[in-house]
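hi!! sorry for the late reply, been swamped w classes. u asked for the two structures so here they r. pasted raw, havent cleaned anything up. first the sequence of the first protein and right below it the tokens
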Amino acid sequence: MRPISKGPIPTDTSGNEINFHKYQDARGKLIERLGEICSYCEMHLDSSLAVEHVIPKKPESSGETIQERELDWHNFLLACPNCNSTKGNKDVVPDDYFWPDKDNTFRAFNYSEGGIITPSTELSAELQGKANATIELTGLDKRPL
């Protein structure tokens, strides 16, 4: 999970912030800024990348769509089908996880041969727990058969 910067809310030709009417409309702007790469597992995909909501737009605890989350640029990342479905609509407290657009994820994780991702041994026990939670949430702990 590489650190990424998606930048501020995109603007139109007049310099006004774009208001997305559907979250899917943000996909093109996200790809322009992040590339055709999953924000979590870093898989390159020419298609099938979804606009992923960091904090679910429809959390499993309520089942109700929360409009402010659904169309908020700051709540968007790109995700491959596997990472997006693994993360799903689980209720998350953002501070309990590392996020590639907010944290130095190179410092948080160790990357070893075969794509194995583990928490950095240089982190405190508390931050290792946070790294483990991130790995489990996004499915980065899955191993090929």
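now the second protein. again sequence first, tokens right under
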Amino acid sequence: MEYPHKSVLLAEVIQQLNCTRGYTIIDCTLGGAGHSETILENIAPEGFLLGIEQDDAAIEAARVRIARFSQHFEIFKGNFADIDEALTKTGLVEVDGFLLDLGLSSLQLADAERGFSYQVDGPLDMRFNRQSAMTAADVINGYKEIELTRVIKNYGEERWAGRIASFIVRARAREPITRTGQLVELIKAAIPASARRWGGHPAKRTFQALRIEVNHELDALKAALAAMPKWLRPGGRIAVISYHSLEDRLVKTKFKELATGCICPPRTPICICGRKPTLRIVTGRPILPTEAEIEANPRARSARLRVAEKVADAGS
């Protein structure tokens, strides 16, 4: 099965995770196994990789792509919020690295029936896991105007969120909004023509917001960031590739929190809080794709890679 997705910042991920023979690596966003294939090439034959993925099409493609490493990997079907469950079921105790690549795959965007793309018409779906109950159509047709405004504003950082929500509510009173094409036309109508001349496609931010809401992406990221450090061995690393400011801000803030030690007031003569850092921030500034990578894969342009390392005395 063809899975046309170019892995972003591949060389940088391999370098930052210090991928070495015998390592145990968790790819929390397996996708079509682009990153995982190269990771396995570096950690096999003694190493082991666990891939976490909730998209059936991606799982099928990944199994084919890394079939030659069949003795060195397992796949857990689920969300990366379920890291504790995935590692417990696999029997792992301590690992050397985690990777989260938070971007959409090219296959998901290209398949009109998945409803992720504002460039082609399709059903308003947007579920990563197609067994999940809620779709984007449920959000568009079921949320109150104030709730739609909140989603579009907070998750899409869309300045015209109120107008877009208002247009949606008026339109759905006439007939249900079930297609991406319908929604795109409503968004274009809601945003003034002068504002549509900059900032890319006018539907980009609203579609991002709906996808985040449908898949609870930020809640899942928070859960993953809280879970990963306790599974890392000292010196093990977490690498996260994000594609928009909401994700990147969450990662940056959590890494900073976990890298902070004593928080006692400055004049306290001795530490009474007992707080010790869990992580050391490896990348003060995020690692960005090179111009050559962006030219070869324009979707890499917004990628940001942040890395943190488990400190030796952090405990479990």
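hope this helps!! also noticed smth abt the second:
The chain has two domains: 10-107+217-310, 112-215.
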